[in-house]
Write a structure and sequence with these properties.
The two termini are 31 Å apart. The strands form two sheets. A six-stranded antiparallel beta sheet has the order 5-4-3-8-7-6, with helices on both faces. A two-stranded antiparallel sheet has the order 1-2. β6 and β7 form a beta hairpin. The chain has ten helices and eight strands. The protein has two domains: 76 residues, Arc Repressor Mutant, subunit A (Orthogonal Bundle); 173 residues, Beta-Lactamase. The protein is an alpha+beta fold and 273 residues long. Helices cover 46% and strands 18% of the residues.
Length: 273
């Protein structure tokens, strides 16, 4: 079955002949309709809204969202009772984050920065309370490199990428995430909060955020938020390296201006498409 293009707010309909096809799996088609109802990777929808968009009974939608959440294709937001696309849906090539043009545009810039600075450079998005690498480049000459690749998850509150996201996010979204971080780790929260506040100040003063040994003692990194528009969520480009190979001072003096230029180049190139 092919889900055809349709006006916004409508759900792809099942024709009569398809219903009579003994090979057609109705439950699977309905699950795909639910995923298709999300117009943006950042959109949050409840069962009532999904039932309206998919023209299905709410009881059916409730079973579908439960199953899709268990499988990782949806993520349930307990605070609001709504759902957003989960990591499994996004990595399959969902509505926004897997758009190949983002990776195609960013890859040459990321690789150039990695080669010029002997760092690992990644493009990351937020997945719940972690950051998820959707593109990753390494220096072709660096002796030491970090073993983090596409699909890696790293913490939101202590890494450069996570702090870059939080510092660049709208105040309301940031406060909601901070509250969740505090809830899951109240003991460690004061240190995490201090790092986030410092990241916000650093972004305003230096144009980047820092994490020098805060996540892992042996890793230094800096990051800059990326705003591409076109319905895409906030992303982050981070550069990282073993602390033994690149010092904090070198990151700020030499890598930082190149990282900022890289992000501005990606944004300009993407907007010019």
């Amino acid at each position: 079955m092919t889900l055809v293009d349709k006006p916004a707010g409508e759900s792809p309909r099942r024709s009569g002949p398809i219903k009579e096809d003994r090979h057609f799996v109705t439950a699977l088609a309905r699950g795909l309709e639910v995923l298709h109802a999300f117009k943006s990777g950042e959109e949050r929808l409840g069962n009532h809204e999904l039932a309206e968009r998919c023209s299905l009974p709410k009881s059916t939608i409730t079973r579908l969202t439960y199953t899709l959440t268990k499988l990782g294709y949806l993520h349930h937001i307990a605070e609001s009772g709504r759902y957003r696309l989960g990591l499994m849906a996004l990595t399959l090539g969902g509505t926004t984050l897997s758009r190949l043009d983002v990776k195609e545009v960013s890859n040459p810039f990321l690789q150039q920065l990695a080669n010029a600075t002997d760092t690992m450079v990644a493009l990351a998005i937020r997945d719940d309370l972690s950051m998820f690498y959707i593109e990753n480049c390494r220096s072709e000459t660096a002796i030491l490199t970090l073993m983090l690749g596409i699909g890696s998850h790293i913490p939101l509150g202590t890494t450069a990428a996570g702090r870059g996201y939080l510092a660049g996010a709208p105040a309301g979204a940031r406060q909601t995430l901070e509250a969740r971080l505090q809830t899951i780790d109240p003991v460690g929260w004061p240190r995490v909060e201090q790092g986030i506040r410092q990241a916000m100040a650093d972004l305003a003063e230096f144009g980047c955020v820092r994490s020098f040994g805060d996540w892992r003692r042996e890793i230094n990194g800096i990051a800059v938020p990326v705003r591409l528009g076109s319905g895409l969520p906030l992303m982050v480009v981070n550069a990282a390296a073993a602390a033994s190979s690149i010092s904090a001072e070198t990151f700020m003096d030499e890598v930082r201006p190149r990282l900022i230029a890289t992000v501005r180049g990606i944004e300009a190139q993407y907007h010019a498409k």
